[in-house]
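Training component of the fellowship. As part of building independent skills, the fellow (R.M.) carried out the full modelling exercise for a liganded target. The chosen ligand was pyridoxal-5'-phosphate. The inputs are recorded below so that the supervisory panel can assess the work.
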Amino acid sequence: MKLFTVGPVEMYPESLELGGKQDPYFRTQAFSDMMLGIERKFLKSVNAPQGSRFAALTMSGTGAMEAAVSSVFTQEDKVLVIDGGSFGHRFAQICEIHRIPYQTIHLNFLQEFTADMLAPFENQGFTGLLVNYCETSTGQSYDLNILGNFCHRNGMYLIVDAVSAYLADSLDMQQQNVDLILTASQKALALAPGLSLVAASPRVTEERILKNRPNTLYLNLAGYFENQKRGQPPFTSAVSIVRMLAQRLDVIEQSGMRAVVAQHHKRAVYFRTKARQLGIMMPCYRLSNCCTPLIFPKGNAKQIYQYLSEKYGLVVTPSGGAQAEKELRVGHLGNLQLSDYDILIDRMKEIL
Ligand SMILES: *Cc1c(COP(=O)(O)O)cnc(C)c1O
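Fellow's submitted model of the complex:
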């Protein structure tokens, strides 16, 4: 079997080996040292501003989205959400549940986000913007420079869900004016699901996270930041994923973020060129390196998915909802080689 999915993805042999080992007890100095090393490497990888805070949460990416929103915003805020697919929609749902006033910029299927869509929200008293850097359900990558400048002009906090974009697309908290970024273990980090990572700027930490009193214990980032000072989680951590993460971040630090992003870009471009040669359609908006959405106007997407997985064990990512018959996504995350795409393309030819 070979996964061309967006999470979980093909894992690296080193991670699989670590996953088979006995977990140590974690209230120890050795575990704290590992966590502090992870903090340093993660904050560096996103170029977090000096004094930024880090948390490792034992929950999937949605937990980190909810932790971020409920720790940063209150009912006194007014938040803008880019709702361009199922993950953007999830941010809106979280605001709804936590009674945080919000408005959305809604995008239709295949519609591109453009800077002029922000104009009606300029100087309207918004205090924050919630965005998925890559909206994984559509593969669209929003321009963080545009969003960062907008937030800066309007004195808003920029909260970025980079669950699928971290490592795949270039991300720089300082340059792009990001206040909080979150990601999760099962996407480009290519680890088992269950651990999420958060980096928060000193500004949002001091002005919001350490001051607010959200109605939640497990999702309150303040508790995680406080304990992380000594490298400990407030609750039992997903210890085995933490061990795998320490190893992955070592590898990433050694190769450098630029090279890691370039590797994802190379895979994406390689696959897209070949898929276009087959006459397969793709959306016209800015695509993330995380995955490539393929459009099948004849409505045979599901049939192609089944053929590839049942006959060859090649698992691409089906789309949900209204797009299920028309769209498939091919992932570029995890332990994949260019030659894997050659095989996938050859097999796809058989059924197009
Ligand atoms: C995968 C993903 C998440 C998290 O989903 P979980 O199923 O909770 O891990 C959040 N946002 C984006 C953009 C994602 O791709």
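The panel noted the following from the submitted structure. The chain has a mean pLDDT of 97. The CA atoms of residues 21 and 240 lie 8 Å apart.
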